[in-house]
Predict the 3D structure of the following.
Amino acid sequence: MINLKNKKAAMEMSMGTIVTIVLLMSVLVLGIFMVQNIFTAGDEALEGISGEMNNQINELFAKKDLAVVMAPTDKQITVKRGDKPRGFGFKVKNDVNEVQSFTYTVTAAGESKIKEKCGSSMTIEKANAFLQTDEGSFKLGASRIQQDGEMILLTIPDSAPECTIEYRVDIQGDQGFIETGKMFVTID
């Protein structure tokens, strides 16, 4: 009789274990599904931003004889502290009749301007640290406009002060091309 009770207890223990495993696997699959949806939504949002900027930039190249076009065209964006990355874009037009290699750097403009607008705790190093991409390079065919353009994203930590920082985009080509663009980023 003692043997029968042990078998019954062992059977109940294994049934409980199986139910627990099934529940944990269900939660794991649901968690993976939710994380995948979150990342997919983030990618689609960035592609949407990039698509809108490309359309604005292409319209400006069609209307005016410009070498560099920044978007948004009013050269101002607002980024919320602790929010998802936001940014701005630019495209370059290669006016020479040969392939040209371009490099660009993005930096916050002027320590004194930053301190004046953001307070003494903000430094140029901190402002530059908000940039996810601060430099890059690309090649562009003869007399061509960049297909996709470049996207500059910023991530602003919760600790950043509310202020506006001017960022400079310096673009240089290996055939003598030099341009500078500006974007004003307001931290909200």
In short: Residues 42-49 have pLDDT under 50 and may be disordered. The CA atoms of residues 39 and 50 lie 17 Å apart. The helical segments are 2-63, 111-118, 124-129. The beta strands are 68-71, 76-79, 86-92, 100-108, 135-140, 150-154, 163-173, 178-187.
